[in-house]
Amino acid sequence: MDDGPRQQKQRSPTPEVSLDGIISHIGFGPYQVIAFLLAGLTALAFGLEITVFSLVAESLQSQWGVNGVKLAILPSVTGISNIIGGVFFGYLCDTYGRVWPYVLAMMNIAVFSLASAFSPDYVTFVCLRFVVSFGVTGSVVLLFAALTEVLPVLNRGKVLVLIMLVESLGICATGGLAWWLIPRYHTNGWRYLVIATSLPSFFVVGFRIAFPFESPRYLVARGDHKRAYKVLRRMAHFNGKDLPFPLSSIETLPSSTTRSLKTSCLKLGSVFKKVYLRTTVSLSIIFVAHTVAYYSLALFTPTILGDLVQNSYFTVFVGYLGQIPGVILMSIIVEWKHVGRLNSMRFFICLAVATLVLFALIQNSVSVPVLTILINFSTVPLTALMLSYMSEYYPTSTRGSALAYFSNLSAFFGIFFPYLAGYATDVFGQFPWLFPSIWAVFYLVVLLVTFCLKQETLMVNLLDQ
Fold it and tell me: Major facilitator superfamily (MFS) profile domain: which residues (predicted)?
């Protein structure tokens, strides 16, 4: 039995008087391409921000004398900021829409990320990155909510996963910049890298202002059917389609009141309603274990590689390239009828466990670069798939709050676990098997819990109330 109320799969070729039917009639065209480019540029900016610290960590250690445990202070305190920002932007997303909260979140990232490049000491750098992180969770919430709600059901899974491809390209570019800038400009190379990674966020702000179209699903959920109809007509016009639905048919679509939307944001516990409880608990364990493992690996792998290979920045850059084929493969299999979201998730988790176990057992000049590539190949696409599954499972009226809840939960545990990762890094020379073994156990737990998820979201319409 499924544990959530889901709509029936769309089988009729005739457009239904439902948002999924209307959007499927409009199809995937120029409007969705523009929405994807906006989301992709946001994902690019997000990828740069979450990657840059791991690449400048070694420079900060040498310049300001910061050890592995002290280095963990940054991801720890920024985890607190992520929680605050997640609650704030989750509330704004479901109460005031997907446009201006988007601008606010990205402006926050852009300005304070740029300012952090001029930090005179580690404390100042931590404080400024704390403020940057306030908008990071918000950007993820708004990115997936805004894009999910304009995609036809036939293309949704593939497009949402491909967002990670853009983020992966950004991460690879960051690795390449670090490989070029930091060794070349010893003292200020890390500052130039931080400046470069802050620039895409400014472009996102301009893009979102130039493309201020609200989500029709959000407008319907709010009860603003006239504005929703205008947006749907604009979508159809962009795609060269007629909209054979009068305003009266849009006005029959169910909506939630503004008050109920605010309530669902203020009380993130809405995701713990009985109908969602099993999935919410399972996803909580899965997402926390994955994000803690993934970001700890991303944060400390460059430092670990410094003990194993001569050119750690080049190895990191090559390892990042492994994300690209991983995301492409997932975007293909995630839409296969007999694979779908859940089996795709399990396949990549199994690969991550196997790779980390091999990394713990075999460490030489040949295996380390290969296994670094495989770690990125298997772990990076999982984030996009998990967020896509959440976006598809929860209804429009609580979609932003649900995404914020999971991001905040992982951020809460992220306050503490970087210290574990930092300690494991410091003792790596004595126990080289420890670091990868810890995260292999985390992914093994994730694999087991995925079997508690019973609802496959492949080809299932979104809930709009």
Answer: 35-458
